[in-house]
Amino acid sequence: MGAAEMETLSSVLTSPAALSSGGWRERFEERFRELCGSRHALTVTSGTVALEIAVHLLDLRPGDEVVVTPQTYQATVQPLLGHDVTVRFCDVEPDSLNMDPDKLAPLLTDRTRAVILVHYGGWPAEMDRIVKLAHEVDALVVEDCAHSLGGAVDGRRPGALGDIGCFSFHSSKNITTLGEGGMITFDRDDWATRVDRIRSNEVDGEYYPVPAAGVPAELRWMKYAQSAYGIGCSRVRRAGTNATLSEAACAVGLVQLDRLTEMADRRRHITNRLNEVISRYPGVRAQHPRDGIRHAHHLYTFFAGDRVRRARILAELDRRGIELQLRYFPLHLTPEWRALGHGDGECPVAERLWFTEHINLPCQPVLTDAQIDHLVWALDVTLAGTAV
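RE: above sequence
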């Protein structure tokens, strides 16, 4: 947060305008639509809520199948635990840690309703192949874009590459809306109506007009008179909730979008310095996206080569004061998914990399130059001391 965010917050808080559902939200959503390239972008209170609503839009039925990635935060697939569907975990590519299109094809059937993936760490997945495979069996593709704001594939932005995009503005993400917030993107007008009802604490249902007879004369001017007396409901899909992102949060989000390039450049600078160190040592490898992929650098990931060397690297980095958070434990091995029949051997690439090679390092733009220098030094001396 900087002076621009503070100035904007002050103007919001001293304005006579309402602090909910106002002009800041409209402007933030409009700017996000333009950036992403989607027809609709609707704010909600978190990326988790965006994913929950996205799964709701799939209209899943008992017996449906959904293919998901194991290499992601639990919120990406957690909403499926509330549905009577078959979940299939698709293994990942060994470099990007994104869903592997080659492994996806054999998992798709005529009962597959959706594919849910993440752009891991900010490296956009191979969406053209994945979307083509999914659409061949009439399945929808949900992109978890929590890591990928600022990334691109051949000039196209995540969030408009599949059927539904879900973004997080948590304080750890590439922009934030005061610590929490989210966005859901898509092109379908009917979904926009449904999502707006859900986030506005109204029922998502199928409605039809009926004669508005019996409306008391003194109530005809009230907002809910026509909905109570002039509309019928043939089906309730789900109850709504209050997922309204505040005006203050949206205002800060708008300022943060203006700074997205600046913050992405800082992440890229840190990544380049770390990659330069890793390039000097055999047996360890960094991520290197193909031409046409713009990495958003939400996470910095490299691979240690084997279990023994990784253990030594982690211990030495920790001893030198480097924060280590390995993201993410393979979801098909967590207790709730093991309880549903998933387990070892289901995604061998994800399992091998997680348990033997995978390392994440800090790359947040708030790191000072001194902290970056320390991080680079610590990595350099650690790799030198653990060289094969």
